[in-house]
């Protein structure tokens, strides 16, 4: 089979590749954390990055400045003046600083000390927080000068490993497989096309620090219920089923994202209760011994949270596709009752990469350059959505 060699090659690739962390300007800020009582206010600099990096923070004088060095970070085209709270500092500058390093310099409104500096890490994101407390001129203890600050720099703080409970897990579900090849066109099968794409996407996500599980990694058949069970056992934060269907010629083309149809919730609850054990319906909740009415209520309650999260991810995905010039269906987000979207407790989408029956879509799926671009789109949508969800969770806790 002509795809077999490629699949075996992809399986042998390392699970990671070096990619710089990127600054998420929308999640970063300089904030005042108290009153100044006639002098400078306590400040806190928060830097949101797409993954954890080694860093170091120190003060220099003449004038008083906070310097933060980041190793393996790309500050991109973000402008310091666009940082939320930039007006709290006389000036902020940043840019590259030697091989593999970036530097952020915050001119301070007076003498300060670094009260604390830390990095909170998850697999798909990181936040570095530096707290500054105002001090008297006599207590200001910077490095002797900006020149000496460039020598004998402090060692960068190690990247804290994410705890197992904090890992961000995505389950990729390549549709069909085994005795079910899916759609067929011009000697190609949907099952093989989406498997190759999924393997490439897995490598890109793992390079970004995301934990990736797959419902299948070869040309094997996995029934629909087992795909959902695998996602729940993996404690997935997101489930993505990948397809490339076929329709009569000229009826459909372009990528499409499907989310669960809320109107079908009651019927889905009944079907899930019949097909699954009651300890396999909601992660962390054993429904054994509970009647159907209570089971349905709890599943509906779970969907109150997961349904809007699924819809937000769908919007992230089509936004990235639009920015990258990926051809989309006329209605790029649609509601459906596909079995793989039924999980009440896991945000889930079904992504039609294109239609194998369409000549252009099929050519795209066979084109490594197009797949590379689409992989980047999906990977960036996943990590962007993960950061957004983490920020929402933080606001809810507050």
Structural commentary:
The protein is an alpha/beta fold. The chain has two domains: 21-149, Immunoglobulin-like (Sandwich), CATH 2.60.40; 168-397, 3-Layer(aba) Sandwich (Aminopeptidase), CATH 3.40.630. The protein has eight helices and 18 strands. The protein has helices at residues 4-11, 146-149, 190-207, 224-233, 265-275, 292-323, 359-366, 368-397; strands at 21-22, 29-32, 43-49, 55-60, 65-71, 73-74, 91-96, 101-107, 112-122, 125-134, 169-174, 184-185, 188-189, 211-214, 238-243, 255-260, 328-336, 348-352. The chain has a six-stranded mixed beta sheet with strand order 14-11-15-18-16-17, sandwiched between helices. Strands 2-3-10-9 form a four-stranded antiparallel beta sheet. Strand 12 and strand 13 form a beta hairpin.
As laid out across the biggest beta sheet, the strand order is: 14-11-15-18-16-17
Strand content: 25-35%
Structural class label: alpha/beta
CATH level 4 superfamily of the largest domain: Zn-dependent exopeptidases
Protein name: N-acetylmuramoyl-L-alanine amidase
Domain MurNAc-LAA: 228-383
Signal peptide: 1-17
Catalytic activity: Hydrolyzes the link between N-acetylmuramoyl residues and L-amino acid residues in certain cell-wall glycopeptides
Outline of this structure?
The chain folds into two domains: 21-149, Immunoglobulin-like; 168-397, Aminopeptidase (3-Layer(aba) Sandwich). 30% of the residues lie in helices and 26% in strands.
């Amino acid at each position: 089979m002509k795809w077999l060699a490629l699949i075996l090659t992809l399986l042998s690739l390392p699970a990671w590749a070096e990619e710089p962390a990127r600054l998420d300007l929308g999640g970063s800020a300089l904030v005042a954390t108290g009153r100044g009582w006639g002098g400078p206010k306590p400040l806190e600099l928060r830097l949101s990055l797409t993954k954890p990096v080694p860093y170091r923070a120190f003060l220099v004088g003449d004038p008083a400045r906070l310097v933060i060095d980041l190793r393996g970070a790309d500050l991109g085209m973000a402008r310091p003046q666009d940082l939320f709270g930039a007006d709290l500092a006389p000036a902020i500058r940043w840019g590259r600083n030697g091989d593999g390093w970036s530097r952020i310099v915050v001119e301070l409104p007076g003498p300060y000390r670094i009260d604390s500096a830390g990095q909170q890490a998850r697999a798909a994101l990181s936040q570095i927080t530096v707290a500054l407390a105002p001090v008297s001129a006599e207590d200001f203890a910077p490095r002797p000068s900006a020149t000496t600050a460039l020598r004998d720099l402090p060692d960068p703080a190690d990247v804290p490993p994410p705890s197992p409970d904090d890992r961000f897990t995505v389950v990729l579900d390549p549709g069909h497989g085994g005795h079910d090849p899916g759609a067929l066109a011009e000697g190609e099968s949907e099952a093989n096309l989406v498997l190759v794409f999924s393997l490439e996407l897995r490598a890109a996500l793992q390079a970004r620090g995301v934990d990736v599980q797959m419902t299948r990694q070869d040309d094997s058949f996995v029934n629909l219920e087992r795909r959902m069970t695998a996602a729940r056992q993996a404690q997935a934060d997101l489930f993505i089923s990948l397809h490339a269907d076929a329709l009569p010629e000229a009826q459909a083309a372009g990528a499409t994202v499907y989310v669960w149809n809320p109107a079908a919730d009651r019927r889905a609850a009944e079907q899930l209760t019949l097909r699954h054990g009651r300890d396999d319906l909601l992660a962390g909740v054993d429904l054994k011994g509970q009647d159907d009415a209570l089971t349905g209520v709890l599943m509906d309650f779970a969907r109150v949270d997961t349904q809007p999260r699924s819809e937000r991810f769908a919007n992230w995905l089509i936004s990235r596709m639009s920015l990258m010039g990926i051809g989309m269906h006329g209605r790029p987000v649609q509601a459906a009752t596909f079995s793989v979207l039924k999980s009440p407790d896991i945000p889930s989408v079904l992504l039609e990469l294109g239609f194998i029956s369409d000549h252009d879509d099929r050519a795209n799926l066979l084109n490594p350059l197009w797949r590379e671009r689409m992989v980047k789109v999906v990977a960036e949508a996943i990590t962007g959505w993960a950061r957004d969800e983490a920020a929402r969770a933080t606001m809810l806790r507050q």
